[in-house]
C-alpha cells in the first residue's frame, strides 16, 4: 500500500474522523439510553448499537494500528463534546424521544456515508483488506438506520398515545 499521496492522506484522515465520529455516537446514545423509561424497544436497540459502536471503535483502532497510526484524541474529545451537547439539548424537549429518533436516523445516515467514502479511499490506497472490517461497521450502521426508519411510526404512535393518556411521553 502506498504510504503517501492524496489517497493515503484521505484514507488516514477518514479513519481518524471515523474514530471520532464513533466516539461522538457513543456520547449521543449513552445519555439517551440512561433516560429512556417508556420505550423498551428503543432502549434495547440503543443498547445493542452501543455495543456495536464499541466494536467499530476497536476495528478502527486495529486498522490504524496496522498502519502504525493512532486515533486523534483531539478529534475524539471535540466530537464527544458536541455529541453530549446534542443529547443535553434534546433532553429539554417535551418530545425528546421523537427528536432523539430523528437525530439518530440522521446520524446513522451520516455514518453510512462516511464508511462508504472510507471504503472507497481504502480501495484507492490498496488497503482493500481493511474493507472487510469497514464493511462490517457499514452494515451495522445500515441495520440501525433501517431499524429507526421502520420503527419511527410505532415510536410516534406510542408517544401520541402516552400524551393523549396524560402520561409522561418524552422518554
TrEMBL record:
Chain ranges passing through the membrane: none
InterPro entries named among the record's database cross-references: DUF892_YciF-like (IPR010287), Ferritin-like (IPR012347), Ferritin-like_SF (IPR009078), YciF (IPR047114)
Top-level division of the source organism's lineage: Bacteria
Coiled coil: none
SUPFAM superfamilies, per the entry: Ferritin-like
PANTHER family cross-referenced by the UniProt entry: PROTEIN YCIF
The protein's name in its UniProt record: DUF892 family protein
Amino acid at each position: 500500500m502506498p504510504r503517501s499521496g492524496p489517497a493515503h492522506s484521505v484514507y488516514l484522515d477518514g479513519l481518524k474522523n471515523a474514530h471520532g465520529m464513533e466516539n461522538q455516537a457513543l456520547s449521543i446514545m449513552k445519555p439517551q439510553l440512561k433516560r429512556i423509561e417508556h420505550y423498551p424497544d428503543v432502549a434495547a436497540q440503543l443498547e445493542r448499537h452501543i455495543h456495536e459502536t464499541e466494536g467499530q471503535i476497536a476495528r478502527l483502532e486495529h486498522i490504524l494500528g496496522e498502519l502504525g497510526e493512532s486515533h486523534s484524541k483531539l478529534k475524539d474529545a471535540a466530537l464527544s463534546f458536541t455529541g453530549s451537547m446534542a443529547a443535553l439539548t434534546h433532553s429539554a424537549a417535551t418530545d425528546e424521544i421523537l427528536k432523539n429518533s430523528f437525530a439518530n436516523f440522521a446520524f446513522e445516515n451520516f455514518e453510512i456515508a462516511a464508511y462508504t467514502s472510507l471504503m472507497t479511499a481504502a480501495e484507492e490506497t490498496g488497503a482493500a483488506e481493511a474493507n472487510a472490517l469497514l464493511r462490517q461497521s457499514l452494515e451495522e450502521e445500515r441495520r440501525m438506520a433501517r431499524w429507526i426508519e421502520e420503527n419511527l411510526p410505532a415510536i410516534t404512535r406510542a408517544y401520541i398515545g402516552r400524551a393523549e393518556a396524560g402520561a409522561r411521553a418524552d422518554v
